[in-house]
Write a structure and sequence with these properties.
Number of helices: 5
Radius of gyration: 19 Å
Strand content: 15-25%
Helix content: 25-40%
Strand order of the largest sheet: 4-7-6-5
Order of helices and strands: HHEEHEHEHEEE
Number of domains: 2
CATH topology of the largest domain: GMP Synthetase, Chain A, domain 3
CATH architecture of the largest domain: 2-Layer Sandwich
Shape: elongated
CATH class of the largest domain: Alpha Beta
Largest sheet: 4 strands, mixed
Length: about 170
């Protein structure tokens, strides 16, 4: 194969990979539908080889029940956009961290009524003393109600100023 042919294939590969990244912006998390899988930072990589799209994803928690559904949604959305051969690869290491969430995603969480992660580190005693800003009134006068919320990645807090309970997306 000559260099011109190789460049055409590489350009097509790169263009297709960029297109896949754009398409993934429309795949939402089933548990927090205001966030895309890209906002969450769970998409690690995209490859396109031999007419097959491979999307590498990492769960927010090992054993996260939403990952199968997310994989199905990625497949469905790519297929609807003309990509027929699709491989979803789950990568567990390194483990996902809230550092991988986009700033836009964190703002979407707050607008949705969920306090975004506020620190880059996690330890099991951390939640007890963590000041979490209320997503409703922005007060820092909040208290932990439960370390476990509606999903394993959230805790329940209550604002002592406005009285509203809210979910906090835990750091890890």
């Amino acid at each position: 194969m000559n260099d011109a042919a190789k460049n055409t294939i590489n350009t097509s590969k790169e263009q297709t990979e960029k297109r896949i990244w754009r398409i993934l912006h429309s795949v939402n998390d089933p548990e927090i539908p205001v966030l895309s899988v890209l906002d969450l930072g769970i998409v690690r990589d995209v490859h396109f080889e031999n007419k097959t799209a491979e999307v590498v994803i990492t769960p927010t928690y090992s054993g996260c029940p939403a990952m199968d559904f997310i994989g199905m949604n990625i497949r469905k959305t790519l297929a609807e956009n003309g990509i027929e051969k699709i491989k979803i690869t789950h990568q567990l290491s390194p483990a996902w961290t809230t550092d991988w969430m986009t700033e836009e995603g964190k703002q979407k969480l707050k607008s949705y009524g969920i306090a975004p992660p506020s620190s880059k580190t996690f330890d099991k005693n951390y939640l007890q003393s963590l000041p979490v800003q209320c997503p409703h009134c922005s007060s820092m006068k909040t208290k932990l109600i439960s370390e476990f919320g509606s999903t394993p990645c959230k805790a329940i807090y209550q604002c002592t100023d406005c009285g509203e309970p809210f979910d906090y997306f835990k750091c890890h």
